[in-house]
User: Which sequence fits this backbone?
């Protein structure tokens, strides 16, 4: 598993961010076809061979969807996306070989030979960055303003889907708490 020479910084609100991340539940249960559709759309719009929807916990980066690579997770230390947690804007790396944060990262020096990365943060309604919708290429490059706008719109769509899943799960739990128990007589 790839590791980075320069560790991603830890956000000042990391404890609260991780609590917010836990509200969305088990990552394996969050994998749905809608996320694959969004990731493929991001790759198409940005004309990149790789796109990912990632969630970053204290030790790992989990992929809700991945286009162009087979990994389902990486260590947080190797994660480009963990660097994007530091703000609410996009993280743009036009050539990872020339960026001190990533030049010696195993994802840059070896497969999949990342050169270009843009990550749009997945922001909760209360402002915590949980991960990113990102696009990756093997060649240095730039996105147009329109491509960046589309990537941000798609990242908001990912969060809308995550919120729908969270609310649905909470509603089901609430309904079950009000359901009569077996053997209970309802007057």
Assistant:
């Amino acid at each position: 598993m790839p590791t980075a020479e320069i560790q991603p910084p830890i956000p000042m609100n990391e404890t609260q961010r991780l609590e917010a991340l836990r509200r969305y539940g088990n990552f394996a249960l969050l994998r749905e076809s809608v996320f694959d559709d969004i990731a493929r759309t991001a790759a198409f719009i940005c004309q990149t061979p790789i796109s990912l929807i990632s969630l970053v916990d204290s030790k790992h980066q989990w992929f809700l969807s991945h286009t162009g690579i087979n990994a389902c997770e990486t260590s947080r230390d190797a994660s480009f996306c963990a660097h994007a947690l530091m703000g609410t804007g996009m993280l743009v790396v036009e050539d990872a070989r020339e960026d001190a944060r990533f030049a010696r990262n195993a994802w840059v020096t070896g497969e999949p030979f990342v050169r270009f990365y843009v990550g749009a943060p997945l922001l909760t309604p209360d402002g915590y960055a949980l991960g990113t919708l990102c696009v990756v290429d093997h060649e240095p490059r730039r996105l147009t303003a329109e491509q960046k706008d589309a990537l941000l719109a798609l990242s908001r769509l990912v969060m809308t889907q995550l919120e729908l899943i969270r609310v649905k799960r909470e509603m089901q739990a609430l309904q079950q708490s009000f359901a009569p128990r077996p053997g209970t007589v309802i007057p």
